[in-house]
C-alpha cells in the first residue's frame, strides 16, 4: 500500500486542532518560561527573553520547593492511598458482596466520579465546614477541618471524587483473571491475605502500574477542587504546583515566571505520560 | 476499556462466594457502612436544595421548592446555556474529527503510523491545565478571549487525542469483511464512514461523546482564565462566583443551582451506561 494523498485532507482537521491548540502552546510554554512577560504592567506588552533568570528564581524559590513537597503529599494521600489502594480494595470486596449492596455502593461511587468538579468541591466545602456533616460524624461539630486539616480534607475529597476510575479499572481486570487460579488458591486453604499478596496482586501488577501512572497524572494537574476548597490555604498549606502556577501567573501577574512553573509541570506530565506509553507499547508488541 | 457495567456483571462466580458466613456478613456490613458515609456529602446536597432553612448539616428538610424558584427566576440559568453551547461545540468537533481521523489511521496506509499513534497516546497524558499560561497568551494574540466557541474548540482539542486513540482502536476491531464488502460495492469514503463505520463502532462513539461532553461541561480553570465577560461565563464559573460571594442564608439556592448544573452530565452518563450494557452493535453484520 502507498500513501493516498486523499488521506491528507481527511487528517487536516485533527492536525490543525492539535497543532494550534496543543502543540503550539507546548512550544510557547518553552518560550514564555524564559521571558519576563507580565499579565499587566510594563512587561505585559514589552517583554523579552531573560536567559536563565526564571530557572535561577525557580530553584531558589522556597515556595516552589514547598509546592513540590505538597504535590508529593497530595499524590501519596490521594493517588496512591485514596484512589489506587482503596479502589483495589473496593473492587475486591465488591466481588464478595450481595448484588444489592454491590450495585448501590458502586452506583454511588460512580456518581461521585461523574459530578462536575465544581459540584464535588462545593459538596465537600459544605461537608468539612465548621458545623458541617463531617463534624457530626466525628462528634466534633466545632471542628473546622478546612482550616486545621486542609491537606487531609483536600486529599480525601479528591479520592472521593476519583476512586471510581480505579475501582472500575480493577473490577475489569479482576474479571479477566483466570478463575481457576483464584479457586485453586481458595481450595488450598491459603489465608485471604496471602492469596491477595502472592496471587491476586502479582497478577494485577500491570493494571496497578497503569492505574498509578494515570491517577498521578490526574493529581499533578488538579486545580479546581483545591482552589475552591482552600484557595491553596490556609496560608500555603495546600498550594500544590498547579495552584502555585495559577497564583504566580494570574494573581501576582508574573506570566513569565508562571510559565516556568507551568513548564516544570508540562515536563513532569510528559515524563509520566511517557512511562504510560511505554507501558502500553510493551503490551501492544 | 473500562466498561460502565464492569460492576454489574459479576455473575458466574463460584457458589462459595454467595454463602452466608460471618465473614461474608461482615463484608457486606463494612461495604454498606462505607456506602452510607460515602453518600452523605451528596445526600446533603439533595436535601439542602429542598430545604427552606438549609445549613451545612445533613438534616430532614423543611420542604420547599423556593430554592429552585429563586435560581430559575433570575438570570442564573444563562450560564448553563453557555455551558451547553461550549460543550456541544467541543463534543461535535471532537467526535466528528475523532471518527474521521480514526478511520484514516485504521484503514489507510500512513507512514510512521505506530509513532503517530504513540504520540497521540502521549498527548492524552498532558492535561490542558498545565498549559493554561501559553494558551492564555495564544488566545490574547488570536483575539479569542471571551469567545465561547473558541473555548469549545480548545476543549475539543484537549479531548481529541483520547478520541482519536479510542476511535482508531474501535475501528481496528471492525471485521475486515465488512470494510471489504463496502469497497467491493464501490461505496465512497463518506458513505463508508456514515453507513458502515458509525453503526459498527457505536459504543466507541458514545464513549467519545460522553467523555468530551463531561470534560467540557466541568471545565473550570480554562473558562476562569479565558472568559471574563459576565454574559459569556459557563455554569462552572457562575457556581464558583455564587459560592464566593456567599452569605449563609443562600445555601439552599446554591445547592439547587449545583444540582441543576450537575444534572445534564449525570443524565448523559446514565444514558450512555445503559446503551453500553447492550454490547457491540456489529455482531449481526458478519453472520451468515
The gist of it:
The complex is a heterodimer of chains A (285) and B (288). With 285 residues, chain A is mainly α.
CATH architecture descriptor text of the domain at 50-115 and 152-223 and 240-284 in chain A: Orthogonal Bundle
Number of helices of chain B: 12
Tally the beta strands of chain B. Answer: 0
CATH architecture call of the largest domain in chain B:
Orthogonal Bundle
CATH topology-level name of the largest domain in chain B: MetI-like fold
Oligomeric state, counting identical vs distinct chains: heterodimer
Ends distance of chain A: 22 Å
Biggest sheet of chain B, in brief? none
The topology string of helices and strands of chain A comes to HHHHHHHHHHHHHH
Write down the Rg of chain B: 23 Å
- CATH names the topology of the domain at 50-115 and 152-223 and 240-284 in chain A as MetI-like fold
- Our estimate of the beta-strand percent of chain B is under 5%
Radius of gyration of chain A: 23 Å
Apparent shape of chain A: globular
CATH superfamily membership of the largest domain in chain B, which one?
MetI-like
Describe the structure.
The complex is a heterodimer of chains A (285) and B (288). By secondary structure, chain A is mainly α. Chain A has a domain at 50-115 and 152-223 and 240-284: Orthogonal Bundle (MetI-like fold). Helices cover 75% and strands 0% of the residues of chain A. Chain B has 288 residues and is mainly α. Chain B has helices at residues 22-49, 66-73, 78-107, 113-124, 132-142, 148-172, 176-184, 189-200, 202-218, 221-226, 235-244, 251-276. Chain B is globular and about 70 Å long. The model of chain B is unreliable at 1-6, 8-17 and 278-288 (pLDDT under 50). The interface between A and B is large, with 102 and 92 residues.
